[in-house]
Design brief:
Blueprint (H helix, E strand, L loop, with lengths): L5 E3 L5 E3 L7 E7 L4 H16 L5 E7 L4 H10 L6 E3 L6 H5 L7 E5 L5 E6 L5 H17 L5
Parallel strand pairs: 3-4, 4-5
Antiparallel strand pairs: 1-2, 3-6, 6-7
Amino acid sequence: MAPNFTITTMEGKRIAFDDLQGKVVLLDFWATWCGPCREALPSIKNLARKFQDQPFVIVSISLDDDEAKWKEFVAKNEMSWPQYCDGGFTGSISRMFGVDAIPHTFLMDGDGVLQDERIGDSSVEGKIKKLIARAQEMQTAGKTRP
């Protein structure tokens, strides 16, 4: 099971991992100063667009320590999914997931079980499709995560 966490997004919305029950969750750890993270951004944006009407959510966790620069980057790059700034590798969420390199993604299924972890390229589209199909089956059957 992925660790439970609670964040407050850039827009002030509180999100707890438990609230995402039944959805496939992609946690995306990144920073504005990280070249490979900026290179991976089009792929993340594509996933957000492609699966926007599915039981899928991306939560981006920035390791920036300059909040103004982070907010400007998110707005400029139209990163419309939930955004949180953890303040670096020593931030609570980063430590919880053991992040020591970025970009770093974690993919959890609708039950909250870690299904994939990647450092670098975040090309997990095929796995996301399979997990969304399973999440939709669970929703139809009325099952929920314990």
